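TL;DR need structure tokens for one chain.
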Amino acid sequence: MLDPWQPAVATPAVLADDVPTLDAARAVAEAIRARVRYDVMGRDDVIELVLVALFGDGHVLLEDYPGSGKTTLAKALGESIVDPTPQDGIAEFRRVQFTPDLLPSDITGVMVFDTQTNDFHFRRGPVFAYVLLVDEINRTSPKVQAALLEAMAEKQVTVDNVSHRLDPLFFVIATQNPLDSVGTYPLPVAQLDRFLFKVRMEHVSRAAELEVLASWGKPRRRPEALPRVSRDAIMSARTVLREQVAISPRVHECLVDVATALRGD
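>> reply
TL;DR here they are.
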């Protein structure tokens, strides 16, 4: 694992797109982990769960008090992904700050009139990204929260009865602050179910805080020296993990038993 406090060394700018083996998939995960650890120290357990959600084709909800590194972690993850051949209208990383006056069209997109062609065309919203940071998700109305449901579950949005597909990589990192309840809209169970994990970020250890203080003023490895991961490399790693990781039938039985118990049948 790369140490962000060591001098920079030459590394590839982008990891290869072809990930045919589990070892190659592990290298992709380690590259992302290294870039995130550059900005977020003492959160290795949280980073691990976020990576599991990313490669498991899920979404993650981060919950903790202000200043715990939720937004920084999400931004660092988004900046670790690059697309050498960008798709039209799809960004590598976008952020939406949820506020009470936000509208659904502010995140999904809207039809706009083109005076040159005398026709309407679709202007894509911030959900058209590989990684979407939804900051303070419980600060906006349920109507806006519901606009994320279709995108998170089906990876598409519907505007004016027309469905628009999102990129298969589409990954949502949402954050919320449990400190204040005034002016917030708690997420309904249906939307919480769209997240693979809800991670409560605890305070970092005393040793980690001392490490941060001790590193103050020291030269750090420049982010450019850490490899970024291509969009296709992540998609290939997902395929490898899905097809090459064996799951015992006993695990399947355990999952079914847990689901049955949770239903209360």
